[in-house]
Amino acid sequence: MTFSKTGLVAVSLAALVASGCSTSRFSSMDDQQPAPLEAAPAGKVTANQLPPPASPGTTDPSQFPTAPANTQVASLPPDGSAPAGASDLNAASVAGVWNASVSGQSCKVATPQTKFGAGFRAGPLHCPAPIDGIKSWNVAGKQLTLYDENGGALARLYSSGGSKFDGQTSNGQPISLTR
């Protein structure tokens, strides 16, 4: 008696189907329900200020460049007006990543054109106070203003030509932004 390969496969398949239908190994699971899960913990969500970043000595020092000792920041007129030669600004000319110098300490500030509040979102990186609190920025005429989370002005700057802004923080510290 000789079987063709097709016939042998058909007989084997029929045997497997028949044995699978008659097994009882899954029948005991039909009556069992899985145990109910415990409810997720319910609680109150609170918002707190994050702790300050680690001090420069605890991480890679190359991430915290310092400004040269001879860094010059242009002074602003005492009446708060724009200095001579300051040019009109637009959001596109401010958008990007800046090297900030605040009273001789350096950091980076990102100024994307992502709408936020009355202006655009801002992100300081390893900046000293008060610039570490920048949350947004906006331009009006010749002035670039950096704002905190409550919309309070942290710094006001004016274009010093090219890719540089000079100004001062709300507490009178000199600040400059360069690319």
UniProtKB/TrEMBL annotation:
It is found in: Cell outer membrane. Keywords: Cell outer membrane, Lipoprotein, Membrane, Metalloenzyme inhibitor, Metalloprotease inhibitor, Palmitate, Protease inhibitor, Signal. It is a lipid-anchor. Residues 24-87, 160-179 are annotated as: Disordered. GO terms for molecular function: peptidase inhibitor activity. It comes from the Bacteria. Belongs to the rhizobiaceae omp19 lipoprotein family. Residues 1-20 form the signal peptide. This is AprI/Inh family metalloprotease inhibitor. The keyword Transmembrane helix does not apply. The lineage of its organism: Bacteria, Pseudomonadati, Pseudomonadota, Alphaproteobacteria, Hyphomicrobiales. The keyword Signal applies. Residues 89-179 form the Alkaline proteinase inhibitor/ Outer membrane lipoprotein Omp19 domain. Residues 56-74 have a biased composition (Polar residues). InterPro entries: Inh/Omp19, OM_lipoprot_Omp19_bac, Protease_inh_B-barrel_dom.
